[in-house]
Amino acid sequence: MPEVKSMFREVLPKQGQLSVEDVPTMVLCKPKLLPLKSVTLEKLEKMQQDAQEIIKQQELALKEQQPQPPERAE
Amino acid sequence: MEVRVSMEPLFLAWSSCRRRRFQRCADICSQLLSESPCDQAAWSLKTRALTEMVYIDEVEVDQEGIADMMLDESSIAQVARPGTSLRLPGTSQGSAPTPAVRPMTQSGRPITGFVRPSTLSGRPETMEQAIRTPRTARPVTSASGRFVRLGTASMLTNPDGPFINLSRLNLAKYAKRPNLSKTLFEYIFHLENDVKNALDLAALATEQAQFKDWWWKVQLGKCYYRLGLHREAEKQFRSALTHQEFVDTYLYLAKVYQRLDQPITALNVFKQGLDHFPAEVTLLTGIARIHEEMNNMTSATEYYKEVLKQDNTHVEAIACIGSNHFYSDQPEIALRFYRRLLQMGVFNCQLYNNLGLCCFYAQQYDMTLSSFERALALVSSDEEQADIWYNLGHIAVGIGDLTLAYQCFKLALAFNNNHGEAYNNLAVLELRKGRIEQAKAFLQTAASLSPHMYEPHFNFAMLSDKVGDLQSSYMAAQKSEDAFPEHVDTQQILKNLRQHFSTL
User: Which of A27, A34, A52 sits opposite B455 (nearest CB)?
Assistant: First the structure.
């Protein structure tokens, strides 16, 4: 501004960029989109689960057939 | 007297098999066989029905056991050239998302939008890591635990023992009868998982067919693949292709090359296949998957888009493009892809979780929490529940409710105590409360649980730097640099520390 007379000459940098100091902060892990499952994978998991169920049931049945043999030994 | 009019039993069995009521079909066939044990039609039908019950598309199945991964002899070079190996995902050029925006899996790949059996576990670097990788109740050492388990399970369901006693079978006799041998082979291969016997049968049968039947060659290739004889498998598939061009054969062949860690050759195979079967969806998907595994997201997305042009209901393509948009800062476009999946009838907790996240980051706050509520209502395992609470924690951080965030991350840990990300985020929250020791402990846990993530290492470096423990800070920063070499803040810390040390 030509009218204003000031004691100090203003400094307007013609070169360089405005810089803001970047303070490093702690980082959070990012949100995780969950991947969808393929049909094959779902079938595999289902079969595995079913198989485990069956095994569990058979083990239970076995246990009922043999009611604690070690106690009888005592 | 009541006269019961019923269908011819064999026809009924056929009909149930066609309607995919395999148990019923098998039951009827068993009855027929108990009346006339030599009924070949019933026998063959029963084998088919039993096989169908446990049938899995062999193209999709690819599970490397730990032994396969660690004692692998097929690699030619320890350090592959950039862009030629699936095992060094960091070597791709450009276009790869940084871990600063897209979380990584243990193998160092960005997380994908879709899991296939083969993407379940990344290739671990060390034995220790290999053992620690979460595997659901599968034996650690067996080459393919899942196959073994399925085989035993099918036997357990039969109280009278297996339907066919393989050890008593005269394979040579069956190999001469093409009408029985194919069903028998599939039975042995899929249900019994007895690859050795299956291989014997296939070898005899292909001899019977004067080495001219492509089907038997493909089956031989499958057996060799399962036995880990990849070069033999390759030969069989190539030979089968000379007899008959077939999409499946190309897929199997590409699978062999992927296992041999030759993604470029696999891509060539897919392209040859595309010459014979232009715009075939499965081939295009295969190409896209390889690009994705090599961290080349732009090409992968292009191919997935190509897939969608042919088949606009392809779940895998939609999910992958959606997740790619989400992690390239376009959640509103990702939201459209996931909404499309919802319209198509996909209805599970993963989808609702993704919808919730997309809604939140696309500033559609009204839908966010209801999506997450649905996701929580649909969970089937503790791991899924943990992941959903973890994401909810992010929403809470986003709206500034740190108490809720704290509780969410705690819940995530309650459901899955090995959730490294949740530990890291919890540590950050603890530090805000000024509890340095607690934060430190959480960060150390996170770093040991998932050493592939850079965040816990970096945070630990920052924290140690602040409290003046420069040595630990330096070590943690180095680990962070290993996980994410381009991270500017890590570089800064390392530079400062080096200056410090040199002045001492």
Answer: A27
Q: Considering only CA atoms, which of B184, B149, B153, B144 is closest in space to residue B61?
A: B144
Q: How far apart are CA A47 and CA B149, in angstroms?
A: 10
Domain B400-502: top CATH class:
mainly alpha
Task: Kindly list the residues from chain B whose CB atom is less than 8 angstroms away from the CB atom of residue A53.
Answer: none
Site from A21, A32, A34 to mutate, B interface, most B CB atoms within 10 angstroms: A34
Nearest to B156 by CA among A61, A45, A44: A61
Residue B310 CB neighbours (<10 A) = 14
Residues in chain A with CB shorter than 8 Å from the CB of B431 are 26
At residue B264's C-alpha, the angle toward residues B311 and B82, to 5°, is: 120
Domain boundaries for CATH 1.25.40.10 within chain B: 400-502
Q: Are B310 and B281 in contact (CB under 8 A)?
A: yes
d(CA B38, CA B225): 34
Rounded Cα distance, B335 and B337, in Å: 5
Q: How many CB atoms lie within 10 A of CB B347?
A: 11
CB of B412 closer than 8 Å to CB of B393: yes
Domain for residue A59, yes or no? yes
* End-to-end alpha carbon distance in chain A: 107
Domains: count for chain A: 1
Structure tokens at B226: 């399962």
Q: Give the pair of three-digit tokens for residue B75.
A: 């690699």
Q: Tokens in use for B5?
A: 């009019």
CB A26 within 8 A of CB B342: no
Q: What is the pLDDT of residues B335-377, one digit of tens each?
A: 999 999 999 988 889 999 999 999 999 999 999 999 999 999 9
pLDDT digits (tens, 9 = 90+) for B81-95: 666 777 655 544 445
Q: CB B156 to CB A34 under 8 A?
A: no
Q: Compare CB distances from A38 to B115, B427, B489 and report the shortest one's residue.
A: B115
For chain B, counts of helices (H) and of strands (E): 26, 1
B104: DSSP letter? B
Residue A47 lies in a domain: yes
pTM (predicted TM-score)? 0.80
Contacts of A44 in chain B (CB under 8 A): 56, 61, 117, 146
Binning pLDDT at 50, 70 and 90, where does residue B78 land?
low
Share of chain B above pLDDT 70, in %: 81
Q: A49 lies in which domain range?
A: 36-65
| Dihedrals phi, psi of B110, to nearest 5 degrees | -65, 145
Within an 8 Å CB–CB cutoff, is residue B459 touching chain A?
Answer: yes
Q: Dihedral sign, CA of B347, B348, B350, B353?
A: positive
Q: What is the ipTM of this complex?
A: 0.72
Residue A25 lies in a domain: no
- The chain B residue lying nearest A38, using CA atoms, is B116
Q: For residue range A8-57, what is the model confidence (pLDDT) as tens digits?
A: 887 877 787 777 777 778 888 888 888 888 777 788 778 878 878 888 88
| Cβ contact, residue pair B424, A58, below 8 Å | no
